[in-house]
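User: We ran a pulldown and think these components assemble together. Before we commit to crystallization trials, I'd like a predicted model of the whole complex to look at. Sequences follow.
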Amino acid sequence: MSETMSNEMVHLTINNIPVEVPKGTKILQAAQRIGIDIPHLCYHEDQRIKAHCRLCSVEVKGKRRLLAACSTEVWEGMEVLTDTPIVRDTQVAILQLMLANHNKDCLSCPRNQNCDLQRLCSRFNILESHLPSVVKMEPRISTNPSIVRDPSKCIRCGRCVRACKDVQGISALTYAYRSSDITVTTAYNKPMEATDCILCGQCSLVCPTGAIVEKDDTDAVLDALQDPSKHVIVQVAPAVRVALGDAFGMEPGEIVTGQMVTALKLLGFDKVFDTNFGADLTIMEEGSEFLHRLKNGGVLPMITSCSPGWVNYLEKNFSDFSKHLSTAKSPMSMFGAIAKTYYPEKAGVDVKDVVTVSIMPCTAKKFEASRPEMGRNGMRDVDIVLTTRELIKLIKYVGISFQNLPESDFDSPLGTGSGAGAIFGATGGVMEAALRTVYEKFTGKTLPRLEFEDVRGFQGIKEAEVDLGERKVKVAIAHTLKNARIIMEQVKKGQSPYDFIEIMACPGGCIGGGGQPIGTTNAIRKKRMEALYRIDRELPLRKSHENPEIITLYKEFLGEPLSEKAHELLHTHYHKVDPPYCFEGA
Amino acid sequence: MNDIKFLTKNFGKYDTNSIGSYMNIGGFEALRKAVNMDPKEITDLIASVKIKGRGGAEYDLGRKWSQAREVKGENKIIICNADEGETTTFKDRVLLKNDPFNLIEAMIIAGYVVGATEGFIYMRAEYFCYRATILAAIRQAKNYGFLGTNILGKGFDFNIKLYSGAGAYVCGEGTALIRSIEGKAGRPRMKPPFIKQSGAFSRPTCLNNVESLSIVPHLLLDTESVYASCGTENSVGTKLVSVAGNVNCPGTFEIPFGTPVREIIYNLAGGVQKDRKIRLIQFGGASGKVADDSILDTPYTYEDLRAAGVMVGSGGILVIDERTSVLDFLRMNQEFFSEESCGQCTPCREGNLHIKIILDKMAEGTATKVDIRLMKKIAKVMSMSSLCGLGETAQNTLLSAMQIFPEVFEAGGAK
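Assistant: Here's a predicted model for the assembly, 1001 residues in total across the polymer chains.
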């Protein structure tokens, strides 16, 4: 993380090569300037420096001991050596020590070929070690629908601990015990779901090994696709199309919607639909709900409910304030409800044969889909949720050469999404999409300018005021639960100045979700955000209420927003959840 | 020469439960003197007698205080490190027990010099028996106006809190100690930020050992320069040493620097039990280094011990007689670190575990030459690259033993 960088320049040498960097730069970054990648594991560019793994130890002339490159600031005249016998010996020894306490079943590891430890062992040509294995083999902990932990893979780097604490302010994962017994675990070793964990999966995103991974549901999808009696349809969240390319050597933020649809068709899905459609539907319901609350003195501020991590957080921490939460289901779940009611009628298939799959940037969506509220007659609306990472696996599994795929379009009738639906994937996007519709519905006028710049950007909490003529509406947008807590403490005290609040659990919104490709950083999140706004800008259809498929859906099936049918299918309710909390049968 | 009493001169002279009794022997005179001096005069005085931090790190005390004074920031903190977790070391305990008021006086002086408003005594859990006395001393000092606001009418405020650790050795390390005081798990953190700039509760903090602090009031009243006249050029004054192990009279002794090791062990500590031969002597606790009996005639000074391959460190001296093998001693020492590493950084966490495994293999007679080489390598990597001082020094004993007793490690170390 860049702290206070000044304009003052510092001159040093690294392996006798002169380098000039701003004061405050760490050795690690200074070395990158001259093309040297000092090995590191606990370091993560978005996190507070830990300096725990010691793999980045380098020699500095005049210093008795090695210094950690990640945490040591450069100084004028510093002479750094990154490639001396003692540095090599240290790096190799540290890797060997880690390996001796690591479950090395790489070939059957979910992170095989995508593991920082594996990459470094390969780089340092670690062929054999005389150290005996000291790893404690424990069973994988798979007690919830979202996250699986494998303590035997943990190298105690602390990245997950920092993500949980510093990004989310939750600290469900923390260190316990000491010395070689030190473990990353939950309080009292409870299952994650029985703690304050909200299943956002940010820990899985920063884990350098296979110690924390998403629960893999790819087999269920492959089975469904192989079953000729099943009509398997898939929806894809907006944030997936701007992240998927990362795994196939494309530039971060590349828009791969067309190739993604082709790949899904190649995988054998009967229909490929768009969660953006579901997002437009959410705006119709949520926007109408907000207008209703506004006009009828309902509970304000109203808070969005499409982020399942956020909903879990509210249920575990602020359940007394669940009346503030919009009752509208998330785009995924609205889509699911329509896919299991309207769609079979329209497509002429038996609902019993319909399997609904959703591709999400999110681990908590797996839990959301398993909620009893998200289905009817014992049937789930969304049968299987895959993360972006699992889709990558499927694409690789089938042997699709993703980079070279032609583009195709989503199928109808649930495949048209507006630009408003697309920007749902970025923090502020739901608010902007809602405002476009709310403004026009409330005032009856056409928006002079569609972009609400104040609600865009990576800032933790954003505010804006929108003039609806008769009334000004004050809105706020927060991402990460650390920021959500700030917003909720205001609500709790009755001091919230807002009418409408958007909250997303993950940094940057869904584009930074816990199910996105490994390697996601804040810099990459920003590129994905730009990409979503680019999709919006380039679409002719940019308002949810103008989506022709949505208009048809209301005409043919739902009637009006907030109608009885809409309420039955598209709205939900919330619970008070006191940890310990266990999933039945999970 | 051994009659010099400086740090120990108040011992038994007053009732440690009574501030009046302490004042009757001149208590708080040093503080009265200090508050009429310029802080720089005090740091200069300390610097002139070259007091090195008595906790083991041997950092120059005068320099530490003047740096702490120069650091910008409000509400600075003085911490007295009374964790004394180093094995064989119990000299701070003797000071806490016999002269608690002197320590409190020293902390107030430190507060005055550094410009701090708050002091913490971080005392190891096992010293709970001194809690009541120290708390009473703090309370009485407050009642007498030596703590609180506008101390001695000089317009400076200072208070002291007593904090007990939970028994982890690593909490003697500055950053871990601070985290413990903050109510967090006692695990060290990387530096920077340095404690002097951002220590307890992110406030500038000056951390001192009990013995280092305790010297200061005596020094201020030492008009005859008795202290400066003791010791050698580079090791000025006196030192508390605690002698333990197979000696007849283990205990803490105040010695002038320069006293030969033989005199400490054979005169002060009464010699080795049953006149057995010495197998080894460990200086400075578990993280210290070892020597054989050839060190007996070395004068106990920072420089002479260092030249002889060991260090003053915490001031502990452990004498092991011929009944214990070098290997068994090393295994015992390693057992300690395998338990006490905090576990955060890889070299210390994993290294201690593997060294323990190899030492156990040596004891079984199954260690190979490769194992011995590996052990030495791990020990070096630990000392070169660990996060904190614990990992850095944990293998001092092993590495020095490998030098002094090479025969133990030959042929794979089989017995």
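The domain at 133-214 of chain A is CATH 3.30.70.20 (Alpha-Beta Plaits). That may be worth checking against your pulldown data before setting up trials.

User: Thanks, that helps.
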